[in-house]
Every structure is written in C-alpha cells, then in structure tokens.
Amino acid sequence: MRPSFLAALLPLTGLLWLASPARRLPPDTLTSEADGLGPVTERWYWLDVSGAARSPEDVVKAVLDDFPRIMPPVISWTRKVRGTPGWGSVGDRYFFLLIARRAWVQTDLLTPRMFRNRTLRHHAESGWVAFSAQPQDSGVLRLMVHSRVRASTRLDRLTYLLGMREVQRLTWELVLRRALVLSGGQQVDHGHHTVEYAYTPGEVSDTQTARPAIMSPA
User: Which of 62, 149, 160, 169 allows an S-S link to 127, with CB 3.0 to 4.6 Å?
Assistant: First the structure.
C-alpha cells in the first residue's frame, strides 16, 4: 500500500470516527441522553418580566403556537413539518437548519406553563429542551429555556466546545426576548447557567434536576 494512500486514508478514518453516532437509530427515533455520548450538558437561560399583560399560560401557548417564527431565522431557520400551522400540540414536529446542519425536534410534553421538544436522531444533540413561564414570589414572571442533552457524535461535541455553545446561547436569549414582547411586560433581569456531569446509565431522562443556586427565586 502506497504511503500517499495511507496519508489520505488516515484523516478520512478519523473524520468517520468523529462523526459516528453513539447509537445507530432510525431517523424518526426520539432521543434521550442514553443515545448520546460524553457528559450530560444541562443549560438554563432565563429572563424575568415585570408587569406582564398576559398570563403564564397565554405566554406559553403563544410561543408554542408561533414557534417557527419565534426562532431567530438567521441562526436557526425553522419550519413546522407535522401538525396544524399556528396551533401547537404534542406530536408536532419541526425542521431546523442550524448553520448548514439539518435537525428535527418533536413536542413530546405540554402543560399549561411549559412545553418540551425532544430531538430526533439526526440532531446534533440527544435529549430535550423545554420552555416555561412561571410566576415568582416577588411578582415577576420568569421565562426560561431549560435543556438537558448529550452530544450525538464526537464531532458534535467538538463543535459545541469550539463555539456552538455561544451560538446556542444567542439563539435562546433571542427566543426569550421575543417571548418577552409577547408577554407585554418589561425585562428586569436575565441570565444563563450551564453544568456538565457524567451520564449515569438508566438515569430517567424526564427528570429535571434542581435549578442552580444562582437562579434563586426573584
């Protein structure tokens, strides 16, 4: 075997290793952290609103009903591919174009004050992201995006560390600002927090860990 051939083969082999998913699943499979690799990444982004003109339930419904338009198109072009346009419900599916990367999510949980989207197999992350609106004891309304995921491939993990985490932060902060406009109130505080920890096999994906101390009630 010629050395030049080996020199060309080794980078290709490395790229295939980086891009190889932790589990090979059908494209329509809803994922959990068990389907990813590396540490669990849990993120919180929040924005506190005073004088909201709409109830928490109305804000959550408005965000879900208009979800493709709430997502910033320059960063994450979004289109609804399953479900009724302008009406959000469990089972709705969305297509994303994330900086030339295709991805899909599906709404798998909906309560009056929260909805959750779970990623499908070809997403860069395996797990879920939720949006909620919760009144605080001080009277403000806290809008929050909370996600719990693992990277789907080693390449996705590397991309996240090299800058995708900042793109995600910008995306969800823009979503919160658009939700703020829908609420009819004024921003009084905002922030974000990220923790990473080892994945424990058999861990219940639906369990949301306690919010960090930095997010004490407003």
Answer: 149
Q: Is residue 73 part of a domain?
A: no
CB 44 within 8 A of CB 145: yes
Residue 175 lies in a domain: yes
φ/ψ of residue 32, rounded to 5: -135, 180
CA distance 86 to 91: 14
- Look at phi and psi of residue 92 and say left if phi exceeds 0, alpha if psi is from -120 to 50, else beta: beta
Structural domain of residue 55, as residue ranges?
28-60+111-213
Strand-pair partners of 185: none
On the question of pLDDT at 26 being above 80, the answer is no
Let me know if residue 38 belongs to a domain.
yes
* Total structural domains within the chain: 1
The answer, yes or no, to whether residue 17 has pLDDT greater than 90, is: no
Query: Which pTM was predicted?
Result: 0.85
Residue 71 lies inside a defined structural domain of this protein: no
Give residue 91's pLDDT: 97
The Cα 152–Cα 159 span in angstroms is: 11
What are the beta bridge partners of residue 104? 95
pLDDT score of 55 more than 50: yes
Structure tokens at 94: 């969305």
CA 87 vs. chain centroid, Å, equals 20
